[in-house]
Amino acid sequence: MKASDNHSSAISSNKGLFAFLRHPSEDVTRDNSPLSLLRTVLWYFSTSLILVVGMAILITLDLSPSTDSDRHIPVWGIVLFLPIAEELAFRFPLRRKRWILTVWAGIVSYILLSMALNTKVYETSYLPERLIGCAAVTVGIWFQGWKWLRSIKFSWYFYLLAIAFGFAHLSNSFTGNGTTAGTTAFFLLYSIYQISGGLILGYARIRHGFLLCILLHILTNLPAAL
Prior knowledge:
Elements: H1 2-14, H2 17-22, H3 34-60, E1 66-67, H4 75-90, H5 98-116, H6 127-151, H7 154-169, E2 174-175, H8 181-208, H9 210-225
Helix pairs in contact: 3-8, 4-9, 5-6, 7-8, 8-9
């Protein structure tokens, strides 16, 4: 088993995106050379472009559901807050160091508690309760929880976060007159778009670092704010 894990790590360290996705590993050599960065950026935007074109065709033919999910979110929220918050939630913990997992658990627990109490993260309602709950989770992860997270097989961990990222976006407020072949096709493309984006951003997190994930996410959200 150990030899197989070492083989997977070697494959992921020495090759590109597809080799990594076949054998996800957190022991990948960081590579921020211009050519390596360009490959990742091109994979991310070319994949996104193909799927966006497909969804745009369905929208043009009036075969997609309508959405009003972003109308109540200010521009700064779409361009900055959402990309940073989503990358902290879904890509930051891919490097499973003790301090990273502890910070991640504190941030995510605070956000989830705010959602459970139906309040904004920046509002003061239930603030003491949220802070106490957040502190309890953070302490638990620092002393014991991080070891459990480290014990999960990385490939499962990696794909679970990518799929969770995709399904989190399916909660957007789509509206329409029921399910048709067009809306089914749209949801299929939309799901593939989000999950494939999550997979490539996960690769970027391991291969190039967290800041590139945020930058790519911001650039993806930017057209929606224009």
